[in-house]
């Protein structure tokens, strides 16, 4: 059985800025109004025969969205960027494609993510992994086969990643 949450209608949203370093048009700071769809495949179980309680999944995804909302998402693992945290600021330097771009941004405006890039593709993997990790921590993973997250950069445009459990 598959349970599905439509992020647009379920309020699983966040607005953030990012930079796709090296990309011709997306290599500048720009933002999106993201929403996250989630699908979980598993066997109904427990007292109520749920694959997973909708409230649990909504809570997990909303928590992730809240950490990203109104922040500049910076990838920690981009091969052509360096960053240094000093006091209340982050210094970011991108060296690639014959360009050097440097930024100084207040830390309160930034979220550092363990990703190579902050594309919808990478963000969908990030959401899937975070959901699975949280379900494991809660002991709610035994009946689940896979978790899929779609990170949409707006209506009609997003990336999907399925993380197989079994």
TrEMBL record:
Pfam families: PTPS. SUPFAM superfamilies: Tetrahydrobiopterin biosynthesis enzymes-like. One of its GO terms (molecular function) is metal ion binding. It comes from the Archaea. Gene3D superfamilies: 6-pyruvoyl tetrahydropterin synthase/QueD. The keyword Transferase does not apply. Its EC number is 4.2.3.12. Its cofactor is Zn(2+). Keywords: Lyase, Metal-binding, Zinc. It is an enzyme of class 4 (lyase). InterPro entries: 6-PTP_synth/QueD, 6-PTP_synth/QueD_sf. This is 6-pyruvoyltetrahydropterin synthase.
């Amino acid at each position: 059985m598959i349970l599905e949450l439509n992020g647009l209608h379920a309020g699983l949203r966040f607005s953030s800025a990012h930079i796709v370093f090296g990309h011709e048009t997306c290599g500048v700071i720009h933002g999106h109004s993201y929403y996250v769809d989630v699908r979980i495949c598993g066997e109904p179980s427990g007292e109520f025969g749920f694959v997973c309680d909708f409230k649990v999944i909504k809570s997990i995804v909303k928590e992730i969205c809240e950490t990203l909302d109104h922040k500049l998402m910076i990838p920690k693992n981009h091969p052509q960027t360096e960053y240094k945290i000093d006091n209340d600021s982050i210094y970011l330097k991108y060296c690639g494609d014959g360009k050097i771009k440097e930024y100084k941004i207040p830390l309160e405006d930034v979220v550092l993510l363990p990703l190579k890039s902050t594309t919808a593709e990478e963000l969908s993997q990030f959401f899937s992994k975070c959901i699975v990790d949280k379900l494991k921590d809660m002991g709610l993973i035994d009946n689940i086969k896979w978790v899929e997250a779609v990170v949409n950069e707006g209506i009609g445009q997003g990336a999907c990643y399925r993380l197989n459990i079994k």
